[in-house]
Amino acid sequence: MFDACQVGVVLRAVLFVEVVIGVVALFMAPGLADWLLLAATLTGGALPATLLWLIAACGLKRLLGRLPPQGQYACGMLLGALAAVYGCALLRWTGVLASTPWLASALAGVLFSALMMAALVLRARGRTPAATTARLEELQSRIRPHFLFNTLNSAIALVREEPAKAEAMLEDLAELFRQALADPGESVTLADEIALAERYLAIEQVRFGDRLQVRWNIDPAADSARLPPLLLQPLVENAVKHGVEPSPDGARLRIRTERRGSLVVIEVVNSLPPLRWADAPLPRGHGIALDNVRDRLRLLHDMQAQFSAGMDDKHYRVRIAIPAEAP
Predict the structure, then answer these.
(1) Pick from 69, 141, 224, 314: most CB atoms within 10 A?
(2) Is residue 307, in this structure, part of any structural domain at all?
(3) What's the CA gap between 99 and 115, in Å, rounded?
């Protein structure tokens, strides 16, 4: 309930308070200049009170999380009342207010905190069905009949000539399906996602041979970053599907991770197939996997996550930036 530590939550709370102040000031100010002055005056008390509540809610998150929901609501509203009284006192001490409406301020703080907690609860509950839907879509996109068929065919072709390779391929395939069918968690480490992508590309390497050229640039300092499970593999699968499969000469695939201060940058880049040999324009994807990735990143990291995808010269580049520390 007290998950107020994310930048997006803070920005939305401040924006909500400013909108309320602006609307209230419209009822009391006869002109534009008076409205601006009144809004600035009210902001001088409301903004510090809002930030105080958010800081207290974030700092006490683990402690208050041990209480039952009713206790959390009660503590949150009490914090709201105290923060609002603090804001009112600031206006009184600076001489802005001639009198101190302590009761009205406290009740306004209680109302604000109740609304904030309700919004946080709805946001937390909203993660569950969205994550479940994303999980189902991910399974449907990963466990595709043609992928299983091609992989098994490659293994069968290797059984007599290179049984060791066939065994390794089937082991990688079994691990992929084990991960896909495991109980979903909220997040995994980037190192786990890299290991899974390596298994997937090992299978495709046997299938495509020299047509698939993979380069890894992995920063160990970025391995502990958290991201939704099964997030990197569909990006790699997209790169193989749209970069390697349509090209008679194959394609180059580069996966890079790097820690930059408080952020971890992940890039998946694949070269694009030539068009000179195609009788018709190459089919383009519908962007379902990319939308899935973007939505799941937003659910876990909110506004702290950055996502971009598009053409870059003769390459297609997907770039993700997430917090280096666990949310």
Answers:
(1) 141
(2) yes
(3) 27
DSSP annotation of 273: P
Q: Which helix (H) or strand (E) holds 265?
A: strand 263-271
- Residues 260 and 241 sit within 8 Å (Cβ to Cβ): no
Over residues 54-104, the pLDDT tens digits come to: 888 888 888 887 888 888 889 889 999 999 999 888 888 877 777 888 898
Same domain, residue pair 149 and 294: yes
Answer for the pair 164, 188: CB distance below 8 angstroms, yes or no.
no
Residue pair 257/264 in contact by the 8 Å Cβ criterion:
yes
Give the global pTM: 0.64
The predicted pLDDT at position 279 comes to 44
Query: Is 138 among the domain residues?
Result: no
In this structure, is residue 1 part of a structural domain?
Answer: no
What 3-state class would DSSP assign to 228? coil
pLDDT for res 181: 63
How wide is the angle at C-alpha 323 spanned by C-alphas 319 and 327, nearest 5°?
A: 130
Distance between CA atoms of residues 320 and 307, nearest Å: 5
What is the spatial distance between Cα 273 and Cα 257, in angstroms, rounded to a whole number?
A: 24
Q: Is 219 helix (H, G, I), strand (E, B) or coil?
A: coil
Residue 320 has pLDDT above 90, yes or no: yes
Dump the DSSP string for 219-231.
-GGGTT-EE-TT-
Torsions phi, psi for 54 (to 5 deg): -65, -40
Structural domain of residue 92, as residue ranges? 7-126
Let me know: does 178 contact 171? Beta carbons within 8 Å.
Answer: no
What is the C-alpha separation between 326 and 52, in angstroms, rounded?
24
Beta bridge partners of 317: 269, 310
Pair type for strands 251-260 and 212-217: parallel
What percent of the chain has a predicted confidence (pLDDT) above 90? 17
**What's the pLDDT score for residue 13?**
87
pLDDT for the residue numbered 191: 92
**CB of 213 within 8 A of CB of 251?**
yes
Q: Residue 296, exposed/middle/buried by CB under 10 A (0-12, 13-18, 19+)?
A: buried
Are the C-beta atoms of 240 and 204 separated by less than 8 Å?
yes
